[in-house]
Amino acid sequence: MRLNQSLFIGIHLFHELDATVSDHAEKIVALANRLESERKFSLDSLVHLAQALSTLRRWDDLLDLTQRALEQYENHERFIGIKAIALDRLGRSAEAATSLKALIDAGVDEPFALQTYLNIVIRSGFTTEAIGLLETVLGQENDKQKKYQYLQLFFNLVYFTTPESSRCLDILFQMAPLVDQSKEDEEGSFLVKYFMASQVATHEISQEKIADINVRFENFFKNFPNSNILKQATLPTDGDADSIMAAIEKIVGNHENKQKFYKKVSNELRTGTVPFPFAWRPQNVLQNIRDLPHLWEKCKRSSTLERQYHLTMVARDFVPAGATTVDGKIPLIDLTALLILQDLDLLDHLFKFFPKIAIGQATFSNLNELIRPISGSVYAKRCSDLQEKLKEHSGNEKQVPPFLNIWDRSRCEMSGING
Question: Is residue 285 a part of any domain in this protein?
Answer without folding.
Answer: yes
